[in-house]
Amino acid sequence: MGKGNLKRIVVSAVNFNEGGPLSVLNDCLASLNKISNEQNIEVTVLVHKVILVKDYAESFNVVEFPQIKTSWIRRVYFEYYQCKKLEKIFKPDLWIALHDITPNVTCKQVVYCHNPAPFYNMTGNELFTDPTFFMFCLFYKFLYRINIKKNEYVIVQQQWLREEFERNYKVKTIVAYPVNDAKVVLKEGVCQPEKKKEKFLFFFPAFPRVAKNFQALLEAASLLSKKRTDFDIILSITGNENKYATALFNKYQHIKEIRFEGKKTREEIFGLYNIIDCMVFPSKLETWGLPISEFKSLNKPMILADLKYAHEAAANCHFLKFFNPNDPIELAYYMELLIDGKLTFDSNKVNDPEMPFFNNWDKLIEFLIQ
Q: Does a cis peptide bond (omega within 30 degrees of 0) precede residue 356?
């Protein structure tokens, strides 16, 4: 795209209002803002609320759709009917859909897929515990399929997701690593936890969904608590969030070493990163595993599920131990070795994915608009 010819880009993100997805939107807009200053590019941003992208309200044409998130019917209507009308108004050369679903447009388009739920195989027990998540998985598997082949590329965050999309939907993919914007203050000399202290602190920051696999960590805690009391496990749940959380709380609330502390702000989580001795991440399904990439800058131990997403998120880190996420006995064993300063860590050499692959939005945007 040269400077002489006006090029129009639409960025659709009407379903974002917080967390990692909103960070993806802001990273995308920051890169577009740089390029639009150098090239003749006009950007239209479709969002839930203008205030979410207030830093770009003067640079871009920002249009808000505050009713979209009130129901799935409105969301589906927006993607498959309203976007077609918007395409006629804005006449884009490129449409970047940042929220999983492929809109019904005819211009060059790409879709950014965050949600790995369609690729999770639930057990019968998990289905009973969290039927809502089961329906969500089925729903997303269906929504992903609609119009997906109209995209020039499907953008995903990890190599394992690339493999799933290419196998299940026969599409071309781009792997784009998320930008790590964690503002964690690194403590001097931190590499391994102190071996002599009253309580060894483990932490697992996650919302209670069955795929997060809290039960592996809590069962490991139960086993370990029968042998020693010199550790605590901090959880960012209370037990009141949903049926799954309530089941966990009812089963493990008697264990004094488990602290059901509830949801925490990002600032509180970053504060805990500096205090804890080890992050345990037993989740069976992640698009990326953001806490892993946030925490690894502190160079402290992590005990992670031995799954592809965790290997990629913790690429080339030190002080890692991988465990079978279906084996709480193994997890308890590694936790005890770590408390005693006897754990042998695993190597984790990970190569970059094959092209097209990008580890920042600047290069990704340049590729998309060429």
A: yes
